[in-house]
Amino acid sequence: MTQEELLAQIYKKDSNAFNTLYNMYSKSLYGVIFNLLKNKEEAEDVLQEVFVKIWKNVDSYNESKGRFFTWILNIARNAAIDRLRSKDHTKNLKNLSVDNFVHILDHNATVVNRIDAIGIREFVKKLKPVCVRIIELLFFKGYTQQEASDELAMPLGTVKTQNRTCIKDLRNILEV
Amino acid sequence: MEEFINSGILELYIFGVTTEEENREVQEMAGKHAEVRAEILSIEKAIIDLSYSVSPQLSPEVYHRIRRELIDKHGTEGVVQLQPRRSASSYIGWAAAIVLLGCLGVQYFMYDQEVEKKEAVTKERDKYEQLFASTTKDNEQKEKALRVIRAKNSAIVNLGGQQVSPDSYAKVYMNDADNEVFVDIAGLPEAPEGKEYQVWALTLNPLTPTSIGVLDKNKVADSQGIIQVDNFEGVQAFGITLEPTGGSATPTMEQLYTLGEVKS
Known about the structure:
The complex is a heterodimer.
Chain A: H1 3-10, H2 15-37, H3 40-57, H4 68-85, H5 87-92, H6 101-107, H7 120-124, H8 129-140, H9 145-152, H10 156-174
Chain B: H1 2-6, H2 9-15, H3 20-32, H4 34-53, H5 60-72, H6 88-150, E1 154-161, E2 169-175, E3 180-184, E4 195-203, E5 208-215, H7 217-222, E6 226-229, E7 237-244, E8 256-261
């Protein structure tokens, strides 16, 4: 389904629209949110908040704001970061000892997704350490290039090209 | 342009960490070059798959909760709660209303006698009208089902029985000209109490199921077992699972009744 077809369906805001939106993106958004919060119940709460926001504001989305996925990704990341900063969260903090998205895979090793997309998990674990860190910061945490460059002590220009190389590795395996 | 793609800007664009100026630049390039657009789609796909794969299991309860929040609550927005109002005028109002009600009662009793006679006749007429309507409806459904099967450009996908019910089968009729998809479940056992069949459109690599319809029992009874479901562009296979009434967010694979690949 192209983005245009998807949006045409979502604008109807009926139950089919919801099913499509949920089936296409809930797991990905939940992955991002969980990676930030490390707490399943809280991440579920935030996911619900995010869907409400998408549903309410979808009329204000347009292509000039970037890809639709990027738009909802930003909503999800911002909601999760807001939660991180809230008082409720600090209470629940540190109940999981995971630092990044690859650790989440290990941590949830016993939970096998019914539809584990073609063993991406196994591959993701093989990403170079530098790739894990750079994807963690830029994609999962939404760091700017400058922030990532400071955190990794890597020249600004290198961050961008190194990230491309890492995503290329990922694409080679996924064949996309 | 090659240089533009290799700079790594498109990845950051999808991640949503570019500045507005950079966004405009990317959009301008994407408008001009198909290669840039294709690259954007590939990066996006990789990133969606990556975040999908690191997501812990999401229970169906979350789906139902969010669905209730977005769909079911939707209709109640804007309903104004009435505040109770108490004053002398409202008591006078009630008194007047009770007197009026008494008068109406007497009138009504007399009127009722006449109405009863008329009602008996009307009832009889309604009965015949209903019979006629249901026969017509039945007929229409049969014709519709037949039309689907006979349509010139209908492609048929045969769904074979799976482990849980090897003798089951179903058929999917895809009419590309009208973009209509129908499923025939005459070869499935009747769904037990509290369960309904749900039809999934599957795309492979990665295997992604999308619900294209929950086969509501009334719908099934009304349609000779041939039911229209949503069209799903690019579908590569169809599957039917037995799910709790109302359907599930993701298919229950242990209850997969039939499965069939679309021949392209």
